[in-house]
């Protein structure tokens, strides 16, 4: 007689149970590129339910408050086609954004029964499966209208309080003028220079001192026709410098001396712990 361990039978049973409740999506990753004038973007994840037993949607949500998502129905049976629609509010966001949307669902008849009693479909109440979760991803490339380089300006504590420059470039069909720049720190002087009217500007930051660690913020005001681009933020900081004693520079090589490289084993050579391939 062939004996199969009990744990193996349970694993097969659970796997079969979940295999019967599948949402098959046309796309699990959606990529979007809104225009500069868009305030929000909308898209849909379309799917087909291939499971044998009906399922109930427990939750549809996202990892960002800027996304609202919902399914077109709360219950699906085998062969049903459905969709998860979502709206992404752009607000002040810009550049590349990657967010997660998920749907959790349970098979009908998987509700947990009182202790010691079988479930609605005869399941052991101690082995009722948790909701299944399907993760999806939304990638959005939002145009940068007011480009700030760098977004964070840094000085090391104790270094010379040298001026630092921030370049502003307007990426918009019509001219966008920089109307003003305010610093949250009175001891960091701000000067603005117009390079090309409505297109590019140069901001110079000069601190009175670099004696202490601190953070600061710049508020930029523009006359952009789009309200969400009329105020932008940049930042500056004073941080502890690198400790030379903790990261000594490597010795300089003499002219013509061959540099040292790590020895890399040939492909297929066991290199993991105990001679096993990793």
Brief digest:
By secondary structure, this protein is mainly beta.
Notable characteristics:
Immunoglobulin-like, mainly beta, disordered C terminus, 2 domains, 5-stranded mixed beta sheet, 278 residues, 5% helix
Outline the structure in words.
By secondary structure, this protein is mainly beta. It folds into 2 domains: 125 residues, Immunoglobulins (Immunoglobulin-like, Sandwich); 94 residues, Immunoglobulin-like (Sandwich), CATH 2.60.40.10. It has 1 helix and 17 strands. Strand 14 and strand 15 form a beta hairpin.
Which percent bin holds the helix content?
Answer: under 10%
CATH architecture of the largest domain: Sandwich
Fourth-level CATH superfamily of the largest domain = Immunoglobulins
Taken as a percent bin, the fraction of beta residues is: 35-45%
Poorly predicted residue ranges: 1-20, 254-278
User: What is the typical, i.e. mean, pLDDT?
Assistant: 82
* Shape summary: elongated
CA gyration radius, whole angstroms: 29 Å
Q: In which order are the strands of the major sheet placed?
A: 2-9-8-4-6
Question: Count of helices?
Answer: 1
Number of domains in the coordinates? 2
CATH topology of the largest domain: Immunoglobulin-like
Q: At the first level of CATH, what is the class of the largest domain?
A: Mainly Beta
Largest sheet: 5 strands, mixed
Number of separate strands: 17
End-to-end C-alpha gap: 38 Å
Give the SSE order as H and E letters. Answer: HEEEEEEEEEEEEEEEEE
- Structural class determined from secondary elements: mainly beta
């Amino acid at each position: 007689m062939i004996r199969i361990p009990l744990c193996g039978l349970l694993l097969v049973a659970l796997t079969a149970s979940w295999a019967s409740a599948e949402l098959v999506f046309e796309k699990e990753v959606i990529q979007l590129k809104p225009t500069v004038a868009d305030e929000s973007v909308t898209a849909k994840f379309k799917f087909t339910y291939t499971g044998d037993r009906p399922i109930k949607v427990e939750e549809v949500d996202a990892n960002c408050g800027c996304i609202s998502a919902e399914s077109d129905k709360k219950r699906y049976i085998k062969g049903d086609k459905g969709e998860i629609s979502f709206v992404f509010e752009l607000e002040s966001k810009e550049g590349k954004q990657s967010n997660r949307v998920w749907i959790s669902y349970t098979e009908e008849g998987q509700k947990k029964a009182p202790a010691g009693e079988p479930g609605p479909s005869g399941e052991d109440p101690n082995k009722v499966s948790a909701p299944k979760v399907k993760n999806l991803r939304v990638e959005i490339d939002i145009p940068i209208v007011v480009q700030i380089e760098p977004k964070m300006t840094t000085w090391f504590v104790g270094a010379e309080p040298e001026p630092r420059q921030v370049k502003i470039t307007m990426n918009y069909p019509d001219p966008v003028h920089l109307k003003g720049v305010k610093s949250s720190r009175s001891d960091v002087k701000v000067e603005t220079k117009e390079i090309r009217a409505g297109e590019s500007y140069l901001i110079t930051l000069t601190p009175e001192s670099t004696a202490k660690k601190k953070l600061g913020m710049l508020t930029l005001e523009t006359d952009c026709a789009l309200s969400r681009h009329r105020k932008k933020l940049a930042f500056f900081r004073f941080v502890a410098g690198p400790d030379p004693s903790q990261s000594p520079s490597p010795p300089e090589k003499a002219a013509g001396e061959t540099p040292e490289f790590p020895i890399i084993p040939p492909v297929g050579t066991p290199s993991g712990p105990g001679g096993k391939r990793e």
